[in-house]
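To whoever picks this up:

The parser on our side crashed when reading a file containing two proteins. I've narrowed it down to the boundary between the first structure block and the second sequence. Both blocks are reproduced below exactly, byte for byte. First block:
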Amino acid sequence: MRHQEFYSTGELKGEGEMLQIRDYTSRGDGRQVDFDDHECCIECFPEITLRKINTWNYFNKNGSVIITGSYVVLDYMGVPSIRDGVWSVFQEDGKLFQQVVYSEGKITELSMFDSEGARIE
């Protein structure tokens, strides 16, 4: 399901996909969850939770994209939504400022870019 978040002043802050999922006490195999195929059981918590999944874009108040990246949901208690893949951070003028590569929430690579958008070695 598509979801949007807004600043308190009404401007779009972020948008992406949400996964409806049920948490339960026996979760814990660590696999990525793309859809909730678990039927309600005695170990389930009563409410459905929403978790960010796949690509999300975040905006500054003037509508420019400032961050873009992806989330995965892992099969653990609390069904965490964590960063995965390439996350890009942009300057006000739209040029790339930083890229961070995540693997299931852990940073594996970090790249910085100068004011012209060229990678800093």
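<<boundary where parser fails>>
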Amino acid sequence: SVIEVAKALEQDCRARYIDCRSEEELGSGVVPNSVNLPYPHNGDKEIVDPHEWLEDVEFEEFDKTTRLFVGCRKGHRSAMACEVLINAGYTNVTNVRGGMLAWSRAMLPMVPFKG
């Protein structure tokens, strides 16, 4: 649940939240200290190449064992992103089911996107 994700992020300073929503969706707020890496598109019809997306993930210098929580608006796009991460050898990946809609409904902390 999103409540368990929020607790894990609070308790594990190395855990990270990857928000794969498009930049235009971030106006409603983001998870504190999250990283925005849009997947599988960035709000338009152009598909983000999985290999290019992985390069963005690697740029963030996440270790392959870093606890990664991946979310989007509802959880569908983040499920695809999790598959890409797992296929690339990341071993501690969790899809945030319900995404930011569930996060917001649970009234968990959100901050404005700073771009």
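After patching the parser it read the second block fine. The mean pLDDT is 95. The first strand starts at residue 16 and ends at 19.
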